[in-house]
Amino acid sequence: MYVCSCFGVTEDQVREHAAAGACTPRQIASACKAGTDCGSCVRRIQGILGRGTCPRRAALERGEPALTAEAAQPAAPQEAAPQEPAPTPPAPRPVTLPVPSVARAAA
Fold this sequence. Notes:
Keywords: 2Fe-2S, Electron transport, Iron, Iron-sulfur, Metal-binding, Transport. InterPro entries: BFD-associated_ferredoxin (IPR052371), BFD-like_2Fe2S-bd_dom (IPR007419), BFD-like_2Fe2S-bd_dom_sf (IPR041854). Pfam families: Fer2_BFD. GO terms for molecular function: 2 iron, 2 sulfur cluster binding; metal ion binding. The protein is mostly helical and about 110 residues long. It has a domain at about 1-65: Arc Repressor Mutant, subunit A, CATH 1.10.10.1100. The protein is about 35% helix and about 5% strand. It has helices at about 10-20, 25-30, 40-50, 55-60, 70; strands at about 1-5, 10. A two-stranded antiparallel ribbon has the order 1-2. The longest helix has 10 residues, at about 40-50. The mean pLDDT is about 80.
């Protein structure tokens, strides 16, 4: 059954996003846009999310970290090969502007 008629999102799709870790209507909206147009489906999404358990919330309630150690750690930076310094640009050349010739009026 459709939950969001604006974007054609079904109950099953909301449950799939919840199983993937979306615990709030805002997270569902980020995943599939449901609830971002007219907003009439937000209460229905809240009801669907309330029926099951959020994997992250359940982990926190059991005293486990919400993220795995691998996901929480930033990737180690890779060493870059030494680079040669950029070449120095040539010095600017002086510019000579033409002097306008002004005809002197006869006095």
